């Protein structure tokens, strides 16, 4: 391992997070939206690990483990919903579910 | 033995409670027993205490009985106390005795009415309130009685409430007297603010110490109290309610609107005489108002066709005499006239009740006539009452009291010849309208047939009052006749005395007034009693008819108030029918609706839109956190 | 070893860009896996070995596999790819890009005033992670397990397909 300025690591996390945000906002396919969410969660985890490594403590990795858990739970439930969504609407277009419009 | 003073107002109050709670369950006899009995006990106690007070007066010329402290808030702790001095003794004796007679009369008069128990409950409550009013030692306690009589007046005028006319008359009476009561209340605030107490004696002493005669505060306070007195006593400009108040049962008119409640104003001014003496402008106004009222009302009584309405205007006019006396400083003369007036006016009203009941509820004098032979007792007592009202010389009590007032209007340092002339003119007019009533009702051809003669229970009060109308004058007889000064000597232990004036001038004034009375009676005979149709001829001429209408409508005061107050008020209510304040709330609702439409535009139901919203919000929040 | 960090970072960014822009979902998935791998390398370069291992095993190995299974079940086919191509017009990138750029600028602004700390000075061993996890963070572990339980139940229930269901959602 070589020491890297922590700002660079956080910057990397930020860029990945921004890309994930763009993905969520742009894509209409639900699967891509979920994938972009995973990118965002991963970026957050990256930020934690980078900061933990900066302090040379285990806390960063512990938080990363928690984020991983959350991502796993979210993905399982989310994909189950996607299946139901597809079964109902016969399409993966997120805009198809607009019954809640006011 | 003055410890039982509290029984005097307490007995009618107890009667009220019993009748209010259980009255409808009692038989007529029971209700009458409680209703009349409570007042009878009160009257007996009053006679006993009053007699003791008069013959063996205590050292300070007054007795005070403190009941309890009403409340104790900050520096305000009014004490409920009863004070018996010469002034309140006279008031209590008259109120209880006349009240008892009227209660006795109405136990028979109202016998067929469905609201018998309610009637006696209200009457007892009225008696209790009136007695509290005259015995109160504290202005707040007095105000309690004041409001109580106002309430009972409303309840009793509108006794037959199913008829909307009666209800309107009751509301009119209440609102007009309320206007005066508000002035009274403001006056009480002013007095409390200045002196820190409302105990009457303390207020009087502190006022005479702190206020210079003629000072602005004293004038203001006295004027406000006068406002209250004007409302309750139906003087100009608040006299419009009393003629309409005749919508109530006749005993009510007799008790409340002749003998007692309407004299509350007179009592108030007499009780707070120190304030009025400290404000000569207001006292002068009292005299002028009294003089003006007695003329306005007297002329209005001349053309009334309803028997009770004529008597109502007559009451207003006679109280004008009392105000005139108060205004020139003739305190004992005013009270003397009050006592005499209570007797003969109650007599007149009760007899009118007999006449009306016998003539199948016909109140229009023009439709009555010739009842002299059908109702002899009624005729004789009415004649006595009318004579007392006209101050028929020597044998009626009205002669002694009214002439005294007219004399003092001249001789008092505060009086002048105009007031004397007004009194004289008023006396003539009084004689005319009183005997007009006699001639129209009891003489001439009978236009209505009577059903029955009054029963004994109803006749006894009539006879007693008739006797009193003759003899009660003899306690105060002028110099040139016998010089009995019992009444004024008694009153002057509580109120200031007024000088005597030259005897000869007094004799001259009395003779002139007596001649005026006789002239009035003759005029009445000429116009209304005889077979000469002069009155009708005048009434049918153009100017006569206009004058008739003007006087009939009480000099147009109702019309004027309608124009000035009632119509603008109704205009405002019409304009504000959809409450303006509602606009504010409607605006709020409208805003919410607008926001609803605006915000629903953002509710697309699409996931991406909401995600965009979240992202935008997050960016903005972070921006605020980072840069601000 | 700075090298490793910067190259892995570049690969991560590039492959993430590809994830977001591909019309074919399977392509996107594969690029995502690549992105995750590079992030794992980044962890490695910082001395967070345990995190790197977990990233590969759990994230790339389990979560992405889930995605693959779902695509397998759904079987979108080529018309899905065509649809995506239609949807991905140049115009729709504008707004979100601006937003993302602003976000990035804010982050850079914050980082610009940083303390200049160095990251990855020392390797943090799995043993330390374990001790920390079951020491101070044991409550979090319990909560995480409850969360996973809820996820299992939820996924099972939501994923069920009853026979003859009509408008069930």
Mean pLDDT reading of chain B: 88
Q: Let me know the number of strands of chain A.
A: 1
Shape of chain A: elongated
Give the amount of beta strand of chain B, in percent: under 5%
Largest sheet of chain B: 2 strands, antiparallel
What is the averaged pLDDT score of chain A?
90
Radius of gyration of chain A, rounded? 17 Å
Quaternary status of these chains? heterotrimer
Report the portion of residues of chain A in β strands. under 5%
By DSSP (H or I, 4+ residues per run), the number of helices of chain A equals: 3
Q: Runs of chain B with pLDDT <50, length 5+?
A: none
Secondary-structure element order of chain A, N to C = EHHH
Number of helices of chain B: 27
Largest sheet of chain A: none
Low-confidence stretches of chain A: none
Describe it:
The complex is a heterotrimer of chains A (102), B (628) and C (169). Chain A is mainly alpha-helical and 102 residues long. Chain A is 76% helix and 2% strand. The longest helix of chain A has 31 residues. By secondary structure, chain B is mostly helical. In chain B, 72% of the residues lie in helices and 3% in strands. Chain B contains 27 helices and 4 strands. Chain C is mainly α and 169 residues long. In chain C, 75% of the residues lie in helices and 1% in strands. The model of chain C has no long low-confidence stretch (mean pLDDT 87). At the A-C interface, strand 1, helix 1, helix 2 and helix 3 of A face helix 1, helix 2, helix 3, helix 4 and helix 5 of C.
Question: What is the fold's blueprint, element by element?
Answer:
The complex is a heterotrimer of chains A (about 100), B (about 625) and C (about 170).
Chain A: E1 4-5, H1 6-26, H2 30-55, H3 59-89
Chain B: H1 7-22, H2 28-55, E1 62-69, E2 79-85, H3 86-109, H4 116-135, H5 139-157, H6 164-195, H7 200-210, H8 216-232, H9 241-244, H10 250-259, H11 264-271, H12 273-277, H13 280-302, H14 307-327, H15 331-358, H16 371-374, H17 376-389, H18 397-411, H19 417-442, H20 456-471, E3 476-477, E4 484-485, H21 486-491, H22 503-529, H23 534-540, H24 542-552, H25 557-575, H26 580-600, H27 607-627
Antiparallel strand pairs in B: 1-2, 3-4
Helix pairs in contact in B: 1-2, 1-4, 2-3, 2-4, 3-4, 3-10, 3-15, 3-20, 4-5, 5-6, 5-10, 6-8, 8-11, 8-13, 10-15, 13-14, 13-19, 14-15, 14-18, 14-19, 15-17, 15-18, 15-20, 17-19, 17-20, 18-19, 18-22, 19-22
Chain C: H1 2-21, H2 25-45, H3 49-74, H4 78-87, H5 94-112, E1 118-119, H6 126-133, H7 138-159
């Amino acid at each position: 391992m070589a020491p890297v300025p922590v700002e660079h690591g956080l910057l990397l996390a930020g860029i990945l997070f921004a890309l994930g945000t763009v993905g969520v906002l742009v894509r209409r396919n639900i699967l891509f939206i979920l994938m972009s969410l995973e990118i965002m969660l991963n970026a957050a985890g990256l930020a934690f690990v980078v900061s933990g490594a900066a302090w040379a403590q285990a806390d960063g990795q512990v938080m990363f483990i928690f984020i991983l858990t959350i991502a796993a739970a979210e993905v399982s439930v989310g994909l189950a919903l996607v299946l139901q969504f597809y079964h109902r609407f016969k399409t993966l277009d997120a805009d198809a579910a607009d019954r809640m419009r006011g | 033995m003055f410890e039982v003073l509290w029984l005097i107002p307490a007995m009618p109050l107890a009667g009220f409670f019993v009748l209010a709670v259980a009255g409808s369950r009692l038989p007529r006899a029971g209700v009458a027993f409680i209703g009349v009995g409570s007042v009878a006990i009160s009257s007996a106690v009053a006679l006993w205490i009053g007699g003791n007070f008069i013959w063996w007066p205590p050292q300070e010329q007054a007795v005070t009985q403190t009941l309890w402290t009403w409340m104790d808030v900050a520096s305000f702790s009014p004490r409920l106390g009863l004070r018996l001095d010469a002034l309140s003794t006279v008031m209590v004796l008259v109120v209880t005795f006349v009240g008892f007679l009227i209660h006795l009369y109405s136990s028979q008069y109202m016998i067929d009415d469905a609201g018998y128990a309610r009637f006696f409950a209200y009457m007892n409550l009225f008696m209790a309130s009136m007695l509290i009013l005259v015995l109160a030692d504290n202005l707040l306690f007095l105000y309690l009685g004041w409001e109580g009589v106002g309430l009972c007046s409303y309840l009793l005028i509108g006794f037959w409430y199913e008829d909307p006319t009666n209800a309107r008359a009751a509301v009119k009476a209440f609102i007009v007297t309320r206007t005066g009561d508000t002035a009274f209340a403001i006056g009480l605030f002013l007095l409390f603010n200045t002196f820190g107490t409302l105990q009457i004696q303390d207020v009087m002493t502190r006022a005479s110490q702190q206020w210079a005669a003629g000072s602005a505060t004293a004038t203001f306070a006295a004027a406000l109290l006068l406002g209250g007195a004007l409302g309750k006593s139906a003087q100009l400009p608040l006299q419009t309610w009393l003629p309409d108040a005749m919508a109530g049962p006749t005993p009510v008119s007799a008790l409340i609107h002749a003998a007692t409640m309407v004299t509350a104003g007179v009592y108030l001014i007499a009780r707070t005489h120190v304030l009025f003496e400290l404000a000569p402008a207001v006292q002068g106004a009292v005299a002028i108002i009294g003089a003006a009222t007695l003329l306005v009302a007297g002329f209005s009584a001349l053309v009334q066709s309803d028997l009770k309405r004529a008597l109502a205007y007559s009451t207003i006019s006679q109280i004008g005499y009392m105000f005139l006396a108060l205004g020139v400083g003739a305190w004992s003369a005013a009270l003397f006239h009050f006592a005499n007036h209570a007797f003969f006016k109650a007599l007149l009203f009760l007899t009118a009740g007999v006449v009306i009941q016998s003539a199948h509820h016909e109140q229009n004098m023009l439709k009555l006539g010739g009842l002299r032979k059908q109702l002899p007792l009624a005729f004789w007592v009415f004649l006595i009452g009318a004579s007392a009202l006209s101050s028929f010389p020597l044998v009626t009590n009205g002669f002694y009291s009214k002439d005294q007032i007219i004399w003092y209007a001249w001789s008092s340092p505060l009086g002048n010849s105009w007031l004397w002339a007004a009194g004289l003119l008023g006396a003539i007019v009084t004689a005319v309208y009183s005997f007009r009533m006699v001639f129209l009702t009891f003489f001439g051809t009978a236009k209505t047939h009577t059903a029955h003669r009054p029963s004994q229970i109803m006749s006894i009060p009539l006879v007693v009052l008739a006797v009193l109308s003759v003899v009660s004058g003899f306690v105060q007889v002028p110099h040139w006749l016998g010089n009995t000064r019992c009444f004024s000597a008694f009153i002057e232990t509580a109120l200031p005395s007024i000088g005597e004036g030259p005897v000869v001038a007094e004799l001259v004034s009395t003779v002139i007034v007596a001649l005026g009375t006789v002239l009035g009676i003759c005029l009445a005979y000429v116009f209304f009693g005889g077979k000469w149709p002069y009155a009708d001829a005048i009434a049918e001429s153009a100017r006569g008819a206009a004058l008739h209408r003007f006087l009939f409508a009480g000099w147009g005061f109702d019309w004027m108030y309608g124009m000035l107050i009632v119509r603008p008020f109704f205009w405002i209510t019409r304009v504000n029918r959809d409450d303006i304040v509602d606009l504010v709330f409607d605006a709020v609702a409208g805003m919410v609706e607008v926001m609803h439409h605006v915000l629903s535009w953002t509710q697309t139901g699409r996931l991406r839109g909401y995600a965009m919203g979240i992202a935008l919000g997050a960016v903005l929040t972070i921006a605020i956190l980072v840069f601000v | 070893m700075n090298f490793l960090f910067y190259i892995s970072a570049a690969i991560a960014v590039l492959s993430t860009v590809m994830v977001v822009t591909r019309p074919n979902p399977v392509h996107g998935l594969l690029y995502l896996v690549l992105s995750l791998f590079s992030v794992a390398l980044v962890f490695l370069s910082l001395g967070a070995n345990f995190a790197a291992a977990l990233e590969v095993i759990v994230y790339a190995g389990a979560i992405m596999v889930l995605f693959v299974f779902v695509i397998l079940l759904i079987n979108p086919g080529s018309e899905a790819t065509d649809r995506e191509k239609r949807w991905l017009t140049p115009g729709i990138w504008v707004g979100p890009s601006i937003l993302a750029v602003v976000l990035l600028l804010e982050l850079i602004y914050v980082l610009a005033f940083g303390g200049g700390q160095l990251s990855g000075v020392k390797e943090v061993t799995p043993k330390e992670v374990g001790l920390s996890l079951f020491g101070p963070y044991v409550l979090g572990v319990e909560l995480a397990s409850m969360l996973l339980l809820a996820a299992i139940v939820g996924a099972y229930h939501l994923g069920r397909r009853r026979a003859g269901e009509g408008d069930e959602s």
